[in-house]
Amino acid sequence: MFKKLDLHGIHCIAPVPGSRSPAWYWGSDFASGDLYEAEELFRGGHPVRGNRLVFVRYPEGRVVEPIAGREGRYFGRPCFDGGRLYILLADFPGGRIEIHRYDDGTGQTDLLAAIPLDQVPDCYNLLLFGSPLLLTRQGNDGKFQLLWPDRSEFPLEDSGAFLGRGEDGRLYFSRWFEEPDGSDYREEVVVRRYPAGEVLEVIPGTLWEMPDGQQWILQ
Known about the structure:
- The chain has 219 residues and is mainly beta.
- The chain has two domains: 156 residues, no CATH class; 62 residues, no CATH class.
- Helices cover 4% and strands 46% of the residues.
- The protein contains one helix and 19 strands.
- A hairpin with a 5-residue loop joins strand 18 and strand 19.
- The longest helix has 9 residues.
- The protein starts with 13 loop residues before the first strand and ends with a strand.
- The mean pLDDT is 94.
């Protein structure tokens, strides 16, 4: 038996980062590409067709759309933290990046934070992470930035990627190494101090999050 969901043209959904059983999925129509591509259109003087952002509750298949899309405003990837959905929204004409909080229990959506767009070099890899909630950016300039709630910036290798902030308050990154001839490949978990980013520990292996939220390092 098939379950049919009318998402009005959105044909792909993915798990909301941080959400577990019962789970939330999210989908977008990407009307003007991804968030960075929409920003490029706006900066180039072109109109930005606002995208739509929907959430689907699994397993019942209930669909919610907390904020209606409109021209000039564009959604990024959401996240889930502390029982609520968090929505990343760039208001290009308004010159700010907004973080909204949706409480499914009450159906209420609140504006949690607004960051001036001119404080962010661009929207490339502009992402929300949960536990606790962070807004981060990892651009093509060799830097990692914490943008909210605290601000910090430090160098990061091209092969480095942010994994999230642990319950211990520290920042966790992955880092990989590969020989040009393909003879060797390995990964490390780099633990950094929050928020300044000093390296505290380097652990050989790959960090893997299990369905119940446990974090395993595979060596």
